[in-house]
Amino acid sequence: MTESATKVIQTLGKCYTKKGDMDLGSPEDTILGVLMSARTTDKQVLRVFPAFRKKFHTWTSLAKADVADIAASINTIGLYKSKAKAIKGLAQKVLKDFGGKVPRTMGELTSLPGVGRKTASCVLSYSFHVPAIAVDTHVFRIVRRLGWSKGKTPEKVEQDLKRLVPERLWGEINRTMVQFGRDICIGGTPRCWKCPVAKWCAFTPKTSAPKTA
Ligand code: SF4
Q1: 192 C-beta closer than 6 A to ligand 1
Q2: Domain 2-18+134-200: assigned CATH number
Q3: How far is residue 170's CA from residue 85's CA, in Å, rounded to a whole number?
Q4: 135 by DSSP, 3-state: which?
Q5: pLDDT, position 211
Q6: What pTM was computed for the model?
Q7: Torsion-angle region of residue 89: left (phi > 0), alpha (psi -120 to 50) or beta?
Q8: What are phi and psi of 171, to 5 degrees?
Q9: What pLDDT was estimated at residue 213?
Q10: Taking the CB of residue 162, how many other CB atoms lie within 10 A of it?
Q11: Is residue 185 in contact with ligand 1, taking CB distance under 6 Å?
């Protein structure tokens, strides 16, 4: 199974070469962007992100800001009020406990308000180049369809992936599967007829192209 899992990730890597939408470079931008992207589209986040960062460009400015002001600057994204509260708390904790630097371990990252394993894995993988697997809704759905995990939680799917996929490819999983999951292995009915990894996939029955009239 490890061999076919490797082939799948390598094949997807050739098909999907764009970097992740939330791969924003610095750990500061990435942690804020991924936190903001929960239950909203990356596009919506990217629309507000430049002005938000221009207004609040340091941890100190976020830590001192009123939650209402942070909320007002991101009010077109989902759950903006609770995200604004988490962002202020995150800034305060980064300043107080980590000397103003985003920490580099899973344990420290997930101790921050609003930061779960998925967000932490994105920061580790994108900004620090530490092997990590961010299991979001696309990765969760695709991995189960491929037959690589029967896990019912993102944590279990992450554990199964870590057993199956060589560490050097962990960072590729989220990046490629998010694009693949928007394009072919979509939610609802997947488009198996044009899938580049169908021969390694356990999903049955494979779907066929809709008939045109
Ligand atoms: S064959 Fe179908 S279910 Fe399997 S990965 Fe491809 S699109 Fe998804």
Answers
A1: yes
A2: 1.10.1670.10
A3: 31
A4: coil
A5: 86
A6: 0.92
A7: alpha
A8: -65, -20
A9: 65
A10: 13
A11: yes
Look at residues 156, 126, 107 and name the one whose alpha carbon lies nearest to residue 33. Answer: 126
Q: Outline which parts of the chain fall under CATH 1.10.340.30.
A: 27-128
Neighbours of 68 (CB within 10 A): 9
Q: What is the pLDDT of residues 161-181, one digit of tens each?
A: 999 999 999 999 999 999 999
Q: Is 15 near ligand 1, meaning CB less than 6 Å away?
A: no
Shortest-distance atom of ligand 1 to CA 197: 6
Q: Where are the beta strands (DSSP E) in the chain?
A: none
CB 89 within 8 A of CB 114: yes
Half-sphere exposure at residue 86, Cβ-oriented, CA atoms within 13 angstroms: 21
Sign of CA dihedral 12, 172, 148, 109: negative
Q: How far, in Å, CA of 154 to CA of 156, rounded? A: 6
- Taking only the tens place, the pLDDT of each residue in 37-74 is 998 999 999 999 999 999 999 999 999 999 999 999 99
**Pocket lining: 106 vs ligand 1, CB cutoff 6 Å:** no
CATH of domain 27-128: 1.10.340.30
**Intervals of CATH 1.10.1670.10 along the chain:** 2-18+134-200
